[in-house]
Amino acid sequence: MPSARILIVEDERQTVDTLRDLFEQHGYETEVALNKQVALTILQERKMDLLILSTTVQENLGIEILQEIRKMSPSLPAIMISDQKSKRVESSSAKAGANIFIVKPFDDELILHTVENLLESRFDIPVSKKTKTYPKGKK
Question: What SUPFAM superfamilies does UniProt report for this protein, alphabetically (predicted)?
Answer without folding.
Answer: CheY-like
